[in-house]
Specification:
The chain has one helix and 30 strands. It has about 500 residues and is an all-beta fold.
Length: about 500
């Protein structure tokens, strides 16, 4: 599941740094569920810790979701594997494996813990906490989704997850965003869709709106209050995708939410504030078409102090699609919401400088992530191409890294990687769909974000993850490594390892 990304106040992504992270000798497997101790002397919580530093040692960490993992005989119970950062980068020798403690019975088909991963310091203790969407569907009135959290601390994440939001009968499909949308310096949790089941009558539908749960949160799941919002023009959230980030430059997170279906999808911008959201209207491209897609992120790509809304339009053939094989769209932020001086842009494989050819089904715009891959201070964008053909191999998949600059996102200097790229482990095979998920992560703290690629379809749905280092020239395939759930002690069959990466 993609999801959902926030770069509020320049949230630093967790990257594998300039050193070769996860080199072959670093793939040691300690005991399952082992909890690492911090690798530095820093154990006192600090409000300035990185958003994805779960154990407070000053290095970003990486969470990998495998929502198809079988646990205790329960299929699709799900798991999360956490690799802890250090001066040498991320390593499978420093890991923690979390599973969902679901019960096995005939009316509980799945939980899929490890979907839609995000992180933030929800309780204000200086340690990042890990959030996941969970499908707790059952064959009774309790159908729905929840957002759960594993709490960070000096020894890593808590083994047991706490429920923060529960929506029986929900239509929001586990989509959520995290950011300080009310300006009180505490992250808030935003969910979209039904909040409660109103009636057993099938003709009475749940309310389709959004809810903000205000931080700080307690470890019992309590919050500082909640309120509801709607998204015009139809005042309903259908198939929502959302993210929070500071688009208006006022230090408060705003909400970009895409809703609708097929060619009718649209993206609304809601400005955050202490009195709730202010509707800034729908986003359009330079041709007046609605800007919308299947993935969304926010990041200041040109360093002008305003977050830019980045949309991945991976579906092909829909009305309003800017390219056959998908594209990445950017609507620049400004003090009123949308910049009045910078025009929106679409970047596809037809854009000068971007490797490859725009072909139907490539899926460009899938699995967006944002980070600085070469240390120049400009945020770059990674996007998957899970439907990319590699030679004659259909849907083998690939990844593009697009560079940010003073003029915004550009095709110049873009880099492309597949399993056929020299130095990349593995073999490009039919229907691998390499690049279904990406993350940019600074696992060694050198301020250069390395690349993590998830391929949940690898090896007939077992899944795998690839890691790439970063240097002054950006991402490099040299020294890249790959591993699956079995490396971390998980049952691999059908787990979809790498379907979600915390970014």
């Amino acid at each position: 599941m993609s999801h959902r990304r926030s770069l509020f106040a320049r949230r630093r992504p967790f990257v594998i740094g300039a050193g070769v992270a996860l080199a072959a000798g670093a793939l040691a497997v300690p005991a399952v569920n082992a909890v690492p101790t911090p690798t530095t002397a820093s154990t006192t919580p600090s409000a300035k810790r990185l958003h994805d530093d779960f154990n407070g040692d000053g290095y970003p960490d990486l969470a990998i979701g495998a929502p198809g993992t079988t646990v205790g005989g329960l299929k699709n119970a799900g798991s999360v594997s956490v690799l802890y950062g250090a001066s040498g980068g991320l390593s499978t020798a420093r890991k923690q494996v979390l599973t969902w403690p679901g019960r096995v019975d005939s009316d509980t088909p799945e939980y899929v813990y490890g979907s839609g991963l995000q992180s933030a310091d929800l309780d204000g203790d200086g340690y990042a906490d890990l959030l996941s969407a969970v499908d707790v569907s059952r064959m009774d009135i309790d159908d729905g989704y929840a957002v759960v959290v594993n709490w960070g601390g000096a020894k890593g994440l808590s083994a047991t997850a706490t429920t923060l939001a529960w929506s029986p009968g929900a239509e929001w499909q586990g989509q959520f965003a995290v950011g300080d949308v009310d300006g009180d310096k505490h992250p808030d949790l935003v969910t979209a869709g039904a909040e409660q089941w109103l009636s057993d009558d099938p003709d009475v539908q749940p309310e389709e709106d959004g809810t903000v749960r205000h931080g700080p949160f307690t470890r019992g799941g309590g919050n500082a209050g909640r309120d509801h919002f709607t998204v015009d023009p139809q005042k309903a959230l259908f198939n929502p995708v959302m993210t929070a980030g500071d688009v208006t430059g006022d230090g408060v997170a705003d909400l970009a939410v895409t809703t609708g279906d097929g060619g009718t999808r649209r993206t609304a911008l809601l400005a955050g504030g202490k009195d709730g959201f202010t509707d800034k209207g729908l986003l359009h491209d330079a041709q007046g078409r609605a800007v919308a897609g299947e993935d969304i992120a926010i990041g200041d790509l040109n360093k002008d102090g305003y977050g830019d809304v980045i949309v991945g339009r991976s579906a092909s053939g829909d009305a309003g699609s800017p390219a056959k094989g998908g594209a990445v769209g950017v609507v620049h932020g400004g003090p009123g919401g949308v910049s009045t001086t910078r025009k929106p842009v679409w970047i596809s494989q037809d854009t000068p400088g971007v490797p490859g050819t725009d072909e139907k089904g490539d899926g460009m715009g899938t699995g967006l992530s944002v980070g600085d891959t070469n240390g120049d201070g400009y945020l770059d964008v990674a996007t998957g191409l899970p439907g990319e053909d590699v030679g004659t191999t259909v849907d083998a998949g690939g990844v593009l890294v697009l560079r940010g600059s003073a003029s915004g996102l550009t095709g110049a200097g873009a880099k492309s990687f597949t399993q056929s790229t020299s130095g990349v482990p593995g073999t490009a095979e039919r229907m691998d769909r390499f690049g279904a998920e990406t993350a940019l992560v600074d696992g060694n703290g050198d301020k250069k974000d390395g690349l993590v690629v998830g391929d949940p379809d690898e090896n007939a749905g077992n899944g795998a993850v690839w890691t790439f280092s970063a240097g002054s020239g950006g991402i490099t395939a040299s020294g890249s490594a790959s591993f699956g759930g079995s490396t971390l002690g998980l049952p691999a069959t059908g787990s979809g390892f790498g379907r979600s990466l915390d970014d």
